[in-house]
């Protein structure tokens, strides 16, 4: 039994570049959508596009000069230090990615990896990608993953990271101080691997970013479509609450609101060793992604010098709207490349995260373009558990209801490919184990225990979402 309505598959199911899936052209309705999105703002949009291209050039020079040094880091034990916390905050808000060091001890993270390897060996029927020698395993409920999600330090680090978001709507039903658990996969990548070559992409939808029934429900990107990309605030949360990020039931397309995607390291891994790369253009790259489908070059890259091709004066609004949304495929992640998104110059702006040790936590904003090394050129495994930062909201609570059922049966969560999953696996932890062995905070994060809306010090607005979540989860 499984609550997932997704087709069977693995992580390649949402990456056309991994699955060799050739998508047909988008239907004409997308041309009509593009026309509606910018109607009445065409002149302002063109001026905004030119401003964006010039701003991108300046930002790229900074990234070329400083690279990974731009990514902020903070020790877990220092997150209450006002001076260090402020410095971290300022860089995080600008770049959208950060590293929290030593969230759990190195020994504990390595023990979790050893426990995972035993779990995999004990259950050789486990699936993954690639099928013959998995790097990303279709595992969601192993003891290591459950214990990591339940760890009090990790929950505190998640709340710390989510505290950098704000809400313009003070009545919005959201709590960043009550993280919710999202059961994701894990990666154990061996030296020399070139199969798990995830190129630059953004998760949580593709076409949905332009669609009125997708991100348009919250008007998340309206300022960009109106020619005011500088006014776009990636840290405003209330506009994200109505969003539908999976309109096509993609096998692995996330429907839960993840403020940050993240992973907990189980290995010592440096740049080039099968690790994460992020695009530090962040907010400007989001604006570029969304505006790119409205513009075309006067002359192609084969007709003129590259610098002239990229120059703002070579780019004009489409005379007639097409259905093109470069890199967007229904039911898949949004992918990027140098042909479709030339101004991003991904070879320069995709930057490695700094070297990590077991127990370090890396988190990146849900709008950030990210990728992994095409080849793992290191000498030891590059291993992580994917654990994002998810606030408590009504839609996230509804997801927890379905995920809780999946946990009970050992099935993949509702966002993931369907199947029997880990139901018959030996050594799998059960909800009963969790109820007897982890903290009440972790039980609440998993949707297994009641939130306390009467806890001292909780603001009135936060009490409302706690009470509402209890009703959704069946505790009231």
Automatic annotation (TrEMBL):
It comes from the Eukaryota. Pfam families: Gig2-like. PANTHER family: DUF1479 DOMAIN PROTEIN (AFU_ORTHOLOGUE AFUA_5G09280), UNCHARACTERIZED PROTEIN YBIU-RELATED. This is DUF1479-domain-containing protein. It comes from Heterodermia speciosa.
